UniProtKB/TrEMBL annotation:
GO cellular component, one term: cytosol
Keyword Ubl conjugation set for record: no
Keyword Metal-binding found: yes
Root EC class: transferase
CDD domains per UniProt: MoeA
Protein name: Molybdopterin molybdenumtransferase
Family: Belongs to the MoeA family.
Domain MoaB/Mog: 185-325
Keyword terms of this UniProt record: Magnesium, Metal-binding, Molybdenum, Molybdenum cofactor biosynthesis, Transferase
Family annotation (SUPFAM superfamilies): MoeA C-terminal domain-like, MoeA N-terminal region -like, Molybdenum cofactor biosynthesis proteins
Single biological process term from Gene Ontology: Mo-molybdopterin cofactor biosynthetic process
Length: 411
């Protein structure tokens, strides 16, 4: 490990470089929500699969389009969605939205644009008159107009959202090749910690980080295989790390005990386990004492500082970066927003501040919230985004453009 205090960007790059790619597996597309594609998806067929009507109305042949206005055209057949292809036989064909276009049809006119004479089941049958010209191809959805067979429709690294399942189902793709679900463990250190249901005792606090980290990891697509509160003792911590490895965790997230306190034993515990510490201490806030280590088992260990915002920020940026990289996802691209207040900041430090976003007549504006200390939970709850104040600036004037990141990073 370098002894130098490294930058936020260098730390992100180090996490990305050390994150191992997870193996691939094949799963049912219907069960694949939130999973990450390991391969491009190529359309096996056209969408639509056949020429069909876009409106309920009448399919017309080329001769009908040339008729003078008001010429009666007999309706000789009907075509419903689900029918096989039929053939035009000289008359018009009453057709329903989505029904396969009969061979020889060149346009569809909506029912409300024609005058109806007679009735389908009456003697003499149904005739239509066109009040206006109908253009060739009108209201026809052509095969392959949406997707063409052989086209790459989804790229490897895509995290499957409901919209992707729509496309897969339409194309009849029942299975997809995805990355394994990353397994995570959450270890919260601190002899002061109580479970959330316990009554407060003198000097104790409730373990707030644990439930948050478990929920945020699940939202990021990880499976939490172990969650444990760990008293302030080195052996209890090493036991918990071993239990996390035994549970198959690819990523172990611990909170607390990484700073300068008498009980800040995480660095020593990792040394005793022969872990390789990649970094410990960053020029960033919150999260200055953040630690990242590689365990001999191959698991990644994130030692996040105990303050709730320091843990939340470390999970949001470092653990999320690792989970993305392990699943072959590209690095996250932030949005950008215009800063609404001027500020001075410590040069060389990256600050990640809780902020509100506002859409001001199409311009995205970011307002940093007051009270940014890392013990405060309330501004986090009120925030829409983390706003990144870059290290190269000591003064940020109003109107500066900042990168902003959704607060939970669960996309
Ligand atoms: N002398 C120094 N003191 C501190 C420094 C420093 O550089 N020199 N750094 C400060 C910074 S910055 C941070 S961040 C914290 C990090 O401390 P630790 O990671 O060692 O964490 P703890 O001391 O265990 O806890 C810090 C704080 O967070 C509360 N906490 C811990 N776990 C939880 C939990 N699961 N849920 C809710 N709250 C939790 C804990 O009670 C403490 O108040 O160190 C500073 N000190
Ligand atoms: O880095 Mo600590 O997280 O500033 O409070």
């Amino acid at each position: 490990m370098e002894n130098r205090v490294i930058s936020f960007r260098e730390a992100l790059a180090a996490v990305r470089a050390h994150a191992p790619m997870l193996p691939v597996e094949t799963v049912a597309a219907a069960q694949a929500l939130g999973r990450v594609l390991a391969e491009d998806v190529v359309a096996p067929e056209d969408l639509p699969g056949f020429d069909n009507a876009a409106m309920d109305g009448f399919a017309l042949g080329p001769a009908h389009l040339a008729f003078p206005p008001d010429t009666p055209i007999p309706v000789s057949r009907r075509q419903f969605a689900g029918d096989g292809h039929g053939v035009m036989d000289g008359g018009a064909c009453q057709i329903m939205t989505g029904a396969r276009l009969p061979l020889g049809a060149v346009a569809v006119v909506p029912i409300e644009r024609v005058q109806l004479d007679g009735a389908w089941d009456a003697p003499g049958g149904l005739r239509i008159r066109l009040a206006e010209t109908v253009a060739p191809d009108a209201n026809i959805r052509r095969a392959g107009q949406d997707v063409q067979a052989g086209q790459a429709v989804l790229v490897a690294g895509t995290r499957l959202a409901p919209k992707h399942l729509l496309l897969l189902a339409a194309l009849g793709i029942g299975v997809v090749v995805v990355r394994a679900v990353p397994k995570a463990a959450v270890l919260c250190t601190g002899s002061e910690l109580l479970a959330e249901h316990e009554a407060p005792r003198d000097g104790h606090i409730r373990n707030a980080n644990g439930p948050y980290l478990c929920a945020a990891l699940a939202a990021m697509g990880a499976e939490v295989v172990l969650y444990r509160a760990v008293p302030d003792a080195l052996e209890a911590y090493t036991d918990a790390v071993r239990a996390a490895e035994a549970a198959g965790a690819h990523v172990i997230v611990s909170t607390g005990a990484v700073s300068m306190g008498v009980h800040d034993f995480v660095p020593a515990a990792l040394q005793s386990m022969r872990a390789e510490t990649v970094f410990h201490k960053l020029a960033m806030r919150p999260g200055k004492p953040t630690l990242f280590a590689l365990l001999p088992s191959g698991a990644l260990l994130f030692g996040l500082p105990g303050n709730p915002m320091s843990s939340a920020c470390g999970l949001r940026f470092f653990v999320q970066t690792a989970l993305r990289a392990m699943q072959g996802r590209p690095p996250e691209r932030p949005r950008h927003a215009v800063l609404m207040q001027a500020l001075d900041k410590k040069p060389d430090w990256t600050l990640l501040q809780r902020a509100a976003l506002a859409d001001d007549d199409g311009v995205l504006r970011v307002q940093l919230l007051p009270d940014q200390e890392s013990f405060r939970i309330q501004p986090f709850v009120q925030a829409d985004v983390w706003a990144l104040l870059p290290p190269d600036a000591a003064h940020l004037p109003t109107g500066s453009v900042l990168a902003v990141y959704p607060i939970d990073g669960a996309d």
